[in-house]
Amino acid sequence: MIKPGLIIKAEGFFPSERRWLFYRRYLHANEHKGDFIIIHGALEHSGRYEELATILAKYGYHVYMLDLTGYGRSEGKRGHIHKFDDYLIDLLNFYAFLQMHKNMQIPFLFGHSMGGLLATLFSVWGKCQVRGLILSAPLFGLKKKISFFKKIFIHCASLCYSNLTLPTPIDPPLLTHDEQIVEEYITDPFVQNEINGHWLLQMLNTLKKVHLAASYIKIPCLIFHGDQDAITDPKATQQFFSNIPSTQKDFYLVRGAYHEVFNEKGREQLLLKLMEWLQQMSKTT
Fold first, then answer.
1. Who has the most CB within 10 Å: 37, 93, 192, 220?
2. How far is C-alpha 166 from the geometric centre of its chain's CA atoms?
3. Residue-wise pLDDT tens digits, 204-218
4. Which tens digit of pLDDT belongs to each residue from 26-74?
5. What's the CA angle centered on 145, arms 143 and 148, to 5 degrees?
6. Could you tell me if 66 and 94 are in contact, meaning their C-beta atoms sit under 8 angstroms apart?
7. DSSP secondary structure of 150-163
8. Is the pTM of the predicted complex or chain greater than 0.90?
9. Which domains does the chain have, with CATH numbers?
10. Which residue(s) pair with 221 in the sheet?
11. Partner residues linked to 135 by β-bridges
């Protein structure tokens, strides 16, 4: 049962490597069960997770979300990155900022798609403690593979023209069956509809490394993935999950769901699973 109480919402900016990054926070005024950092996916921003953050806050969690470099209201060239590890630096600086100025405890990390990839790498990086991982359709593999020759073309073209952009591979109607959320995604001014060629190559190189990280995950881990996901590969996620040595791990293959399982119709059941899992973790961690 959700306990009544005032939900406090705030937003601001914090410094990260000579740029200002935007963040949001959601707090339950009367209760504090733990802390969450939510990491958004590629081409989007933290504002698309307000519903999830509000629900977690109603259950007594303090929730913090940032817009990564080049996304949303954060500084940085749209969709550009020097190297993928720069996102991990963003998270490291966000973590330090929250500990110093917001008294954040050891947090759970929630990551969707690319955010799931980053949350996983951050959790095994060894620089900050993480209480547990919750991943939604994590980017451990692409459903539509990019051919070797296309990679070579993008690499050569990016060397000649660093601003090379490609059309987004994301078809909005394949994100969720909820038509209202699809419409909001299409009309969202902070959602990007192009990807940078160099960014794409950096992401693909990172995918080669992430499966090595599975054997280092010793913390509790909960993963959700839609079996009809046309963007990230559920089979890659299942393979990753099977290699996690943690004794506290759970995987839910969501039948009939697209990429954004927490934006699907009937998501209340998934939220209930999440809350039950968090309650169990509170007894064991």
1. 37
2. 22
3. 999 988 989 999 999
4. 999 889 999 999 999 999 999 999 999 999 999 999 999 999 999 999 9
5. 170
6. yes
7. HHHHHHHHHHH-TT
8. yes
9. 7-284 (3.40.50.1820)
10. 133, 249
11. 111, 223
